[in-house]
Specification:
The chain is α+β, with helices and mostly antiparallel strands. The chain is 24% helix and 29% strand. Strands 2-1-8-9-10 form a five-stranded antiparallel β-sheet. The longest helix is centred in the middle third of the chain and has 13 residues.
Length: 212
């Protein structure tokens, strides 16, 4: 993970009461300031290369899209991750395709997984999912979760933490100005810590995984 690296996410605050306590100990991105989220594109343009024209183009892409509702009704597993399944996935993938098409030098997950992508909200990336039955039981008891998504968030990695840099509103809220913000992406997560080698995992966790 590099200083000034960026990612585009959909923040899901409704999930925090259910997954927050588990993410804090099992999701390597959470102590770095990343909130419960579904990734749209990671990595994106490094901060020192991001221009006003790029920001304007991003705002235009997002403003063409209407807000949408997501339902999280199931827990999924990758070989090294436990996650919530957002439905419908198509609006998320549409955003990913729009950004990757506009900036082809930044394909999802560096192009490692091609086009076969699975939107997801990570709960754990640090333990074998088969060993997390207690987490699955706790989370499933609170499902389904519902979230209204009406903005895209730009995160930047600086000083060992991920911070919220800018918010792009969807169509119905486009009369609001695109907001520049400062500070941790998730103010309530607590102190942001340096995870050393695990920071590479935290960066990976902002990516989209290959379908299984």
């Amino acid at each position: 993970m590099l200083e000034g690296e960026t990612g585009l996410i959909l923040r899901i605050p409704e999930a925090e009461p259910v997954v927050g306590k588990w993410r804090s100990g099992h999701d390597s991105s959470a102590p770095l300031g990343v909130p419960a989220h579904v990734t749209v594109l990671y990595p994106w343009i490094p901060m020192d290369q991001l221009t006003d024209a790029d920001r304007a183009a991003a705002a235009e892409i997002v403003a063409r899209m209407s807000p949408f509702d997501l339902t999280f009704a199931a827990v999924g597993r990758f070989p090294a991750a436990l996650w919530l399944d957002p439905r419908p996935g198509e609006p998320i993938l549409a955003l990913t395709r729009a950004f990757a098409g506009r900036w082809p030098a930044y394909p999802p997950y560096g192009g490692e997984h091609g086009d076969d992508l699975v939107p997801h909200l990570t709960i754990s990336d640090s333990t074998d999912p088969d060993e997390l039955g207690h987490i699955v039981a706790d989370v499933e008891a609170a499902l389904p979760l519902h979230s209204r998504v009406d903005e895209l968030s730009l995160l930047v990695h600086q000083g060992g933490c991920w911070s919220l840099e800018q918010v792009f509103p969807f169509r119905s809220s486009a009369e609001r100005d695109v907001r520049d913000v400062a500070g941790p992406a998730h103010q309530d997560r607590g102190e942001c810590v340096d995870l050393g080698q695990d920071r590479a995992v935290a960066g990976t966790n902002l990516g989209l995984h290959l379908a299984k």
